[in-house]
């Protein structure tokens, strides 16, 4: 377990977890992806296109590449964009993105 052990007034120890926020970095420009607008611009430059599904997935933004079977699915609300989504982007775009601790 990672974190810091702290003592309260009664001398009881507890582990205080350190929450590390993750950020997605575009390696060629060293740009931190801070919005879907910047992410979409970068992905389009890499050949990704918005994917519009007829099944009406209003809660998702999806991108696909014509040259592969990969699909990137992201929550429409950027505040719900987390490390799982970031690592999905990294795996599907090797040597282009990196996830870092903030």
From TrEMBL:
InterPro entries: FPF1. It comes from the Eukaryota. PANTHER family: FLOWERING-PROMOTING FACTOR 1-LIKE PROTEIN 1 (PTHR33433). Belongs to the FPF1 family. This is Flowering-promoting factor 1-like protein 1. It comes from Brassica napus (Rape).
């Amino acid at each position: 377990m990672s974190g810091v052990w702290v003592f309260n007034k009664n001398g009881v120890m507890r582990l205080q977890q350190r929450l590390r926020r993750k950020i997605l970095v575009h390696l060629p420009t060293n740009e931190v992806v801070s919005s879907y607008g910047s992410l979409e611009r970068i992905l389009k430059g890499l050949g990704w296109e918005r994917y519009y599904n007829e099944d009406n997935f209003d809660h998702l933004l999806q991108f696909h590449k014509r040259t592969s079977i990969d699909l990137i699915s992201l929550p429409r609300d950027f505040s719900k964009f987390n490390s799982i989504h970031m690592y999905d982007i990294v795996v599907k775009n090797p040597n282009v993105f990196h996830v870092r601790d903030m």
